[in-house]
Amino acid sequence: MEKRETINNCGNVKGRMNRGCIEANTLAIIDSAEIHKDSQDAKDDRMDFLEAVRIASIVPENGTPPTKKMVEAVFQILRAGKSLELIMSSYELLNEIEKRFPRIYVSESSGNGSPELVVIEEAWLPFMVSLDVMSSEKETNRRKLRGLFDPNGFHELITGLAEMAYKTNSQRLDTKFLGNMLLFQYLVNVLEGDFLARISMYKESMNWNFLRECLINMLLASKRVNYRVLMKECLHTICGLYQDYAGIRNEPDSSDEHSSENHNTDVAIALLEVQRTTCMAMQKLIIMIMEIDMSKQQANMLGLTTRSDGLRIPLIEIILDELTYYRKILPRFLQIFNDPKWKLEIIVQYLLKYTAKPVRTRRSNGPSEDSTFLGVLKSFSDSSSVRSIIKKLNVEVIQLLLAHAFLAYMSLTSQQQLPGMPGCNEAVIDSLSLVEISKNVAAAFNSLREADKKIQISSLGKEALFTATMIISTS
């Protein structure tokens, strides 16, 4: 069940007076001419405004929610901010408002005790998405002028991040790029709040409407977005930004030694951390999309979807294709992508592209063991199969995939995400013990040694082998 609520802004007299004083300055903050002023007085005014909103809404234990115009003004400061102080302060305040006054949440019904999806109608939203294809062009243009993100604008933001991800350090060392990364992180936080509430209700009720109206689903369903290109850009942004804070950028930037003379040192210090958190936000977005894909597949099998839901290539297929054709980004992706459930799923599906396919009969209904991690490991028990896999891949890539898959499997078992547990993908995790998996991992590496006498086990491969050996010896 979904319930729409309105915000009660009839607080005490003092609260209304404070809000009135703040709103008196709001229109000046969001004015298209004023927002781009870069004088010290303008900066001080904006900092005072942010502090006033924080004191009125966040600091008090029973603070009143800021109005739409107040939140919009904070958002405009983040979008147009040219100083590190303004960018960071507005970003932090927006996230505090999102956490303190969520637009959507799940609550227990006062009647029968069943959960309800509560949507606050008056809450401000940085997106303009709708299932109503007849929304007027005039309304759309009006909202664009307010800096809101439509599907195309969201795509353009990610495109900009993808383009900058592979630029030199000095080219990326500016507040605009840093501000765009924080802007993206905030938008993902908003999407996550909406997604978590809706997928919780979907799993509880199996009502596909909850996810059909999910913000992410509506963004990706727009015909204005090239979905495949957008997802590729997300993947390459993660891999590009990861190079810097991991210290593995291939080409040294000769201008870096002069960067401190030309750029704000504070921005340089903040940039590495913001790049790391942007990678995490991008991973969060990717995982949410894959969860929606999996839920949609389930809903489709149950006959809950309609033709209006359209068809969309599952994101995991796009990731597999991209990692196949641009294999040089595979090590970076596996290093940065740290969700064990989806990492294991991706690796298993990647290896299945190169292993021998089993012969299926008409009685072969239901999931096949060959599609699990154990099934992939068993394909390495056959010498001819191993030689075939090595020809298609190479021993370095195979080691990398096996090691990361084993470590992801161990992480899942340590979290007790075994078959039947919430959030577990039973198509990948086997019911066999970790000891059995460890034996098969060790056997797979031995098969690689036998097939290639000159093989050199990588450091990650040695770590996986040592761990597997220890588990077997202590069993």
Automatic annotation (TrEMBL):
One of its GO terms (cellular component) is nucleus. It comes from the Eukaryota. InterPro entries: SNI1. GO terms for molecular function: transcription cis-regulatory region binding. GO terms for biological process: chromatin remodeling; defense response to nematode; DNA damage response; negative regulation of DNA-templated transcription; negative regulation of systemic acquired resistance; somatic cell DNA recombination. This is Negative regulator of systemic acquired resistance SNI1. It comes from Gossypium raimondii. The lineage of its organism: Eukaryota, Viridiplantae, Streptophyta, Embryophyta, Tracheophyta.
